[in-house]
Amino acid sequence: MSGTQTWISANLSYNNSKSGIIGDGRYGVVFHGTFFDQNVAVKRIQQIDVNPREEANLRVLNHDNVIKLKWLEENETFRFLVFELCASDLDNYLKGKYKGQPIKLPSDVQVLLQLSRGLDYIHTKNVIHRDIKPGNILISKTDPVRMIWADFGYSKLTNNHGSTSQSGFRGTHCWVAPEILRLRSNSTNARSSKQSDIFSAGCVFFYFLKPRIHPFGKENSVEGNISRGKIISADLVANDPVIQVVVIPMIAHKSEDRISLTKVIEFLEDPKGIPAAFETMKTKLSESTLIKINKKLIWISTLLQQEKKTGWTIQAQVIKKSQLLLMESIKPGVPPTKYFFVELADGSGTIRARACTAKNCDKFYPLLKEGKEYFIQKSTLTALGEERILSLRAESEIIPI
Ligand SMILES: Nc1ncnc2c1ncn2[C@@H]1O[C@H](COP(=O)(O)OP(=O)(O)OP(=O)(O)O)[C@@H](O)[C@H]1O
Ligand SMILES: [Mg+2]
């Protein structure tokens, strides 16, 4: 080390010059240093800015994918936290700012797996990180490379339910869960939790896999989109099995809907299962899209009680197509009306359905298959005594399920 080195104790020194600075954060400055004869990172924090929890939590953590506190010194003005010297943080790496020796990053899945294991370990020690972002993930200089969770400056111990009280807005805006953002607008008793860490980790995983694209959009709109649960980059990843199966469930809007880290690890440890899970998911997705299209899915019994009978959708199964020629069809000039019978998904029995005119009949009748289920919308329902009749009109729509 050059002449700018400052000795903190007999075995610890740091390069207290501009060239010695590795990182400059909100509370600390991180310098190149020497501890015995090892190159290390020395995080220098003003005594007034010290968060005792950072040190306390670091002391209990001991995992390959979590930064290890090697040593601690202090003087009147500063605390000095000594860490393994890493090659880069993930943000600088992804932005191409890292200029050192080439880094042999493990496969994408391995990177996510290491980070998931590290975070799961942190949570098993009842610590919530609360400031997850790419700048707080380090890439080791070792071979093989390790991904490392760092910066426990905001971390907190949880209660028995896995959450911790939150007295104000914590974390970095772009990466925090919606329930934490809500804290700013109304100081309800929202608590940061393991699930809010999982949300942030999911955003970071996305940012890593689709380099530098945030799932919730650009910096000026990202907070609003997180609050509304609006994933901006959804189209981009519609066909990406890892993102769909692992990452999107991590950034679910409601904390209780988020995937657990145990499940994430299970997928990543055996990634062969991911494509199969994706196929199942796609089927479910298309079903839920259909239901979304047919927002006004309604029970027949409710429908018959309503005066206004438009704009609704029913779900029904065609049980029998009928070729009967009925009374009106044999009247001169009146085309035959074909009927079919549908079984209703609401369990209220069978109803007779008909296509009102020959034109409608030709349009719908050939499409219907006995035994298949459909969403039927924009038709008319009438009750004639005990009988209920569903009439298909020109504008009616029949969507197979
Ligand atoms: N052990 C390390 N090895 C290499 N670089 C490090 C190490 N620790 C920290 N850094 C670098 O220093 C930066 C700041 O460190 P850290 O996140 O711990 O401080 P901070 O003051 O809490 O930062 P912020 O408030 O911006 O998150 C990191 O983003 C990283 O680039
Ligand atoms: Mg930091």
From TrEMBL:
<dbReference type="GO" id="GO:0070059">
    <property type="term" value="P:intrinsic apoptotic signaling pathway in response to endoplasmic reticulum stress"/>
</dbReference>
<keyword id="KW-0723">Serine/threonine-protein kinase</keyword>
<dbReference type="InterPro" id="IPR011009">
    <property type="entry name" value="Kinase-like_dom_sf"/>
</dbReference>
<dbReference type="InterPro" id="IPR012340">
    <property type="entry name" value="NA-bd_OB-fold"/>
</dbReference>
<feature type="domain" description="Protein kinase">
    <location>
        <begin position="16"/>
        <end position="268"/>
    </location>
</feature>
<dbReference type="GO" id="GO:0036498">
    <property type="term" value="P:IRE1-mediated unfolded protein response"/>
</dbReference>
<dbReference type="InterPro" id="IPR008271">
    <property type="entry name" value="Ser/Thr_kinase_AS"/>
</dbReference>
<keyword id="KW-0067">ATP-binding</keyword>
<feature type="binding site">
    <location>
        <position position="43"/>
    </location>
    <ligand>
        <name>ATP</name>
    </ligand>
</feature>
<dbReference type="GO" id="GO:0004521">
    <property type="term" value="F:RNA endonuclease activity"/>
</dbReference>
<dbReference type="InterPro" id="IPR000719">
    <property type="entry name" value="Prot_kinase_dom"/>
</dbReference>
<keyword id="KW-0418">Kinase</keyword>
<dbReference type="GO" id="GO:0051082">
    <property type="term" value="F:unfolded protein binding"/>
</dbReference>
<dbReference type="GO" id="GO:0004674">
    <property type="term" value="F:protein serine/threonine kinase activity"/>
</dbReference>
<keyword id="KW-0808">Transferase</keyword>
<dbReference type="GO" id="GO:0005524">
    <property type="term" value="F:ATP binding"/>
</dbReference>
<dbReference type="Pfam" id="PF00069">
    <property type="entry name" value="Pkinase"/>
</dbReference>
<dbReference type="InterPro" id="IPR045133">
    <property type="entry name" value="IRE1/2-like"/>
</dbReference>
<keyword id="KW-0547">Nucleotide-binding</keyword>
<dbReference type="GO" id="GO:1990604">
    <property type="term" value="C:IRE1-TRAF2-ASK1 complex"/>
</dbReference>
<dbReference type="InterPro" id="IPR017441">
    <property type="entry name" value="Protein_kinase_ATP_BS"/>
</dbReference>
<protein>
    <recommendedName>
        <fullName>Protein kinase domain-containing protein</fullName>
    </recommendedName>
</protein>
<comment type="similarity">
    <text>Belongs to the protein kinase superfamily.</text>
</comment>
